[in-house]
Amino acid sequence: MHKTLKNIILSGIFILLSIIVKSQTVDLSNATIINFEKNDKVVLKAVSVLQEEVAKRTGIKLSVTNKLNKSAKPMILVGLEGQTGNFTAGLQSSISELPPIKSEGYKIAVNSETKMVAIVGADALGVLYGIGKLLRTMEMRKGQILVPADLRISSSPAYPIRGHQLGYRPKTNSYDSWTPAQFDSYIRDL
User: Fold this and answer.
1) For 88-125, what is each residue's pLDDT tens digit?
2) Does residue 165 have a pLDDT over 80?
3) pLDDT bracket for residue 168 (50, 70, 90)
């Protein structure tokens, strides 16, 4: 009898916690990616990486378009700083409240009421790094994409030169036997 009561209480606590956690996130499972940049190859590739990595982890292929449809929700809006005029008024306000960014910097803001996420880069690499940060912040599982409702980030690199050595040599017992697809996945994870 005592174990049954304990199990009921634990189940109730688990249900309450899951409701609280769910209310603190925005569900992007049916989101559309709105990309305002049409020509920059780095931005286009970054948006492609977002779409592919989400699909790989959730099984959901998010659609991508260049036109803002204010009735479609949820949305992930991607653009350069000069393109924020295309964003909704609420997202423009959220982005402008964040600290300024420098070269290769990015801003990410979530509007939980409208279920919109904005990724703004100071330049093309800023968009790439912003998408990478969003991917690391998202909670992804089969059939579901969640992002924290209070997500607001403004980030710029402290130094103009950053790097990571990608050596491909038989000195380790790991990546010298990787396929090109595994090596590509390693680079994307960086």
Assistant:
1) 888 888 999 999 999 999 999 999 888 999 999 999 99
2) no
3) low
Three-state DSSP class for residue 81: helix
Strand order in the sheet with 25-27: 25-27, 144-148, 139-141
The answer to whether 42 and 124 have CB atoms below 8 angstroms apart is: yes
pLDDT tens-digit series, residues 3-25 = 677 777 777 776 665 555 555 89
End-to-end alpha carbon distance in the chain: 52
- Please give the helix or strand (H or E) that residue 102 lies within, else none: none
Q: Cis peptide leading into 74, omega within 30 of 0?
A: yes
**59 phi-psi bin (left φ>0, alpha ψ -120 to 50, beta other):** left
The model's pTM: 0.79
Kindly report the backbone phi and psi dihedral angles of residue 160, in degrees, each rounded to the nearest multiple of 5, phi listed first: -70, -15
Q: Which residues pair with 64 in a beta bridge?
A: 33
Instruction: Give the span between the Cα atoms of 33 and 75, in whole angstroms.
Output: 6
Name the β-bridge partners of 75.
32, 116
Residue 98: other Cβ atoms inside 10 A: 17
**Sequence-ordered alpha helix ranges (H) in the chain:** 2-23, 41-58, 89-97, 124-137, 180-189
